[in-house]
Amino acid sequence: MPDLALRTLGGAVVHANDESFAERENLVRPGAAAFDPSAFGHKGKVYDGWETRRRRTPGHDHAIVRLGIPGVVRGVVVDTSWFTGNYPPEVSVEAAGVEGYPGADALAAAEWTTLVPRSPVRGDAANPFPVADPHRYTHVRLSIYPDGGVARFRVHGEPVADPRFLVTEGLDLAALENGGGVAGCSDQFYSSPANLIAPGLTRNMGEGWENARRRGPGNDWVELCLAAHGEVRLLELDTSYFLFNAPGAARVAGCDESAADPADPAAWFPLLERTALLPDTRHRFAVADPRPATRLRLEVFPDGGMARLRAYGRPSAAGRARLWLRWLNTLPETQLRAALAAAGASEAGAAAVLAARPVARWAALPADVAGRLATAG
């Protein structure tokens, strides 16, 4: 079963009460932990894992992982690889299902369910524990008794999607690969805003958009041209890998330039009101009042980095027609003939399109071609 907590699936360690010797983020890294016997830093031995200080007071240490894909947990692995004289003798695992994107204080007050009771573990070993709980969870908490180091924490289970975020005809209207683009931005000191709409998840902070630290009034922004005129129904604001330089909040507005001038502030309408963001988090927001748009404006307050922006929705009939026409008008002749033949159009229809290019209106397409393309999508 997949590791629901894996970094590459969007998992993140959102809180740890202590990480004096080694960073908590290592717990959900992909791959096995590495070890270099000669690696020492200012804090001591460098470990590829999470390690807390030697505890001199009562209590124990813990870390909270937000699952990249919420689901039913079927088993966990507490991997103590390379921790030999400094591993925790015992561990426990709890889980919680929480709405939205809670911070550490809200998570502390959440209702936690025990998945693995306090149990002994071995050092320098993968310690597996089966889980029988049938519920869908969004967060898991690993507790170690009393302190020590854990290399990796795996949370295997079955993904359970949130149907509120399963948008019908969910095309990413902002994606670079679908034809989206950047119309402008306030600042691109560290990296290009085009990274926001690049394919896939980021692998580090350098693959997102990051502006300079703002020292004056105002806030930073990016304006995007959508791939097609349409309604944005789901927004994803991803701050992955931005731990101490993510925006404190963000707002997203839309504009339909076929009906209004984007230069007029009154032409913009809200898709997401100003909303607080968390660091290192993929935030998803269903748009309460979808409206046709051709542009989006992302504002971050007051500044900070963003890994990705996704704008899932449904192209309008006019938007879909313009996508087809741009494609037909830009294909080389040989490819155009082959593509139309594959769609079932006649040679005469292809010749008519070639003769009419650039075709400005869907109604100007030969009926043979228009009917075949409408059937295709």
From TrEMBL:
Record has Protease as a keyword: no
Recorded superkingdom: Bacteria
Gene: alc
Pathway of action: Nitrogen metabolism; (S)-allantoin degradation; (S)-ureidoglycolate from allantoate (aminidohydrolase route): step 1/1
Keywords: Hydrolase, Purine metabolism
A matching Pfam family: Allantoicase
Catalyses which reaction(s): allantoate + H2O = (S)-ureidoglycolate + urea
Uppermost EC category: hydrolase
Boundaries of every Allantoicase domain copy: 10-159, 179-315
HAMAP family listed in its UniProt record: Allantoicase (MF_00813)
One function term, GO molecular function aspect: allantoicase activity
Keyword Hydrolase among record annotations: yes
EC number assigned by the record: 3.5.3.4
InterPro entries in the record: Allantoicase, Allantoicase_dom, Galactose-bd-like_sf
Protein name (record): Probable allantoicase
Entry similarity comment: Belongs to the allantoicase family.
BP terms from Gene Ontology: allantoin catabolic process; purine nucleobase metabolic process
Provenance organism: Marinitenerispora sediminis
Coiled coil stretches, renumbered: none
